[in-house]
Amino acid sequence: MRPMTITEKILARHAGVKEVAPGELINAKVDIALGNDITAPIAIFEFKKSGAKKVFNRNKVVLVPDHFTPNKDIKSANQCRILHDFAIEQKLTHYYEGGEVGVEHALLPEKGIVVPGDLVIGADSHTCTYGALGAFSTGVGSTDLAAVMITGELWFKVPESIKFAFTGKLGKWVSGKDLILQIIGDIGVDGALYKAMEFTGRPIESLSMDSRMSMCNMAIEAGAKSGIIAPDKITKAYVEKRAERPYKFYSSDEDAAYSEVKEYDCDRIEPKVACPHLPENTKNVGELKNITIDQVVIGSCTNGRIEDLAVAAKILRGKKAAKYVRLIIIPATPYIYNEAMKKGYFDIFLKAGAVISPPTCGPCLGGHMGVLAAGERAVSTTNRNFVGRMGDVKSEVYLANPAVAAASAIKGRIAHPDEVMKR
Amino acid sequence: MRFKGKAWKFGSDIDTDRIIPARYLNTSDPKELAKHCMEDEDASFASKVEAGDIIVAQKNFGCGSSREHAPIAIKACGVACVIAKSFARIFYRNSFNMGLPILESDEAADSTDPGDVLEVDMDTGEIVNATKNLHFKARPVPPFMQELINAGGLMESIKKRGMV
Ligand code: SF4
């Protein structure tokens, strides 16, 4: 048998064949299919139009209205209602609203809905996040979701894989977010177009699950189909207490073929900032002098997890956000919200002058809870800084990790965490 | 399928937020979405674009989110097809699934100016710039994708295969 990558193995297994090769078109069984309040309404419409009556498996279709919730206006409310009614009609096991809903890509791993070895599709581009668990997961459109809701399977083109091999040691304020920004800055927003990004090496093996999720989350920002990290003992510790279903660890064969291998030395990677208006416009935070800001957002499916809030709390403890800077902190799920509260982070955040939002995508996509005005500038721990992404077309978004975001809130300009923390 | 229409020209990495800004995603009504198509890139696009016009762009068209609202908005404002050097993966997939014709051609992307009249033959991949009298051949569409188009998109294709 030809040697295969982890991605090829998972795809082969779900296509019911022994092996697959890049470029091959396959039909594969889907373990979990996800939709949200933006994408599911179209999928549900297509589902009904086709004459279908029942979803292929009520445990495997997951609906998470998280983008414009709590419903920000009448139109959003009507969209969410479509999900609500469909979830009841189809008796979906995994439907969340009110105080149970969180940002989808934080929620699914946390609840053990997605497990290692899965094939997951989601009508949301950041579905690639679950690669952090050693699953193949990729974003698709609403029509794809409709097709899967009916049939439980979907066509895929087996992607080539690029291997990103890390060595060295992570610097103090460097996290998974910085590693992925380093890569995107290097290869560009279409540098991994149609491909699977596989992250390997010692520093990856010691990364927390939260940091791994930040990394895989942004694979799409390099144009990739998926990002993946081979599961290990850190993965096991995370999933064993959550997994809803049996899981399986896959790994790449030693001699598997990659379209490219890129090497990175973590000793040389500093906290990164992606400047407007593309995630590839990265700079070291130290290179950015006197960029004043109006808003800081700490949250999203990239960096709204407990580790992210812990770093922000560490930096904000006993300090205040600069005057005229709005600091908005959004725990990604109700569980994270509760954890942060129990750990005392809310006290720190509130004393720092932060607004603590309920779990939602909110400002990440310029939806609500912190939309930018013309000429305003934000530092955000989210994943996209496209023109108009967080508000007016004349606003600007700088992407960074939570430590940089918190330090910038204190200084009122883009700042290195070392500037506000004693060494 | 053959199209003839006037070209609108865009650059590289036109993301889905520029095709249809997220602030309008609280609806999925094609007519509503069409009103805001390309708004943040060219505010006059939606009011000036005419049925049958063709969008021509550089590389990585449609990058960013998975929103099918992007190809829906483009189609609903009357655009006949999109030609680019390359497309972002999900946009590419969505276009075939929902029946927005798209073609990849470096030469056509480079030599087209705004307002040029283009003729496109989807079956052969031939692109003619009638204004400049230039002929190009787009990258062939994989047979599997061609079948999807012939079936009338993904939903029709699963119906034909008796899967509903
Ligand atoms: S937090 Fe932002 S990037 Fe993540 S799913 Fe929500 S809108 Fe998309």
List keywords for this structure.
heterodimer; A: 423 residues; alpha/beta; 5-stranded parallel β-sheet; 15 helices; B: 164 residues; 7-stranded mixed β-sheet; 8 helices; 7 strands; 32% helix; globular; binds iron/sulfur cluster
Question: How does this structure look, described?
Answer:
The complex is a heterodimer of chains A (423) and B (164). Chain A is α/β, with parallel strands linked by helices and 423 residues long. Chain A is 31% helix and 17% strand. In chain A, strands 4-3-2-5-6 form a five-stranded parallel beta sheet. Chain A has a five-stranded parallel beta sheet with strand order 16-15-14-17-18. In chain A, helix 2 links the parallel strand 2 (32-36) and strand 3. In chain A, helix 11 runs parallel beside helix 14 (402-411). The longest helix of chain A is centred in the first third of the chain and has 16 residues, at 74-89. The model of chain A has no long low-confidence stretch (mean pLDDT 97). A seven-stranded mixed beta sheet of chain B has the order 4-3-2-1-5-6-7. Chain B is globular, with a radius of gyration of 15 Å. The model of chain B has no long low-confidence stretch (mean pLDDT 93). In chain B, a hairpin with a 4-residue loop joins strand 6 (126-129) and strand 7. With 164 residues, chain B is an alpha/beta fold. At the A-B interface, helix 2, helix 3 and helix 5 of A face helix 5 and helix 8 of B. Iron/sulfur cluster (SF4) binds at residues 67, 103-105, 124, 126, 300-301, 361, 364-365, 382-383 of chain A.
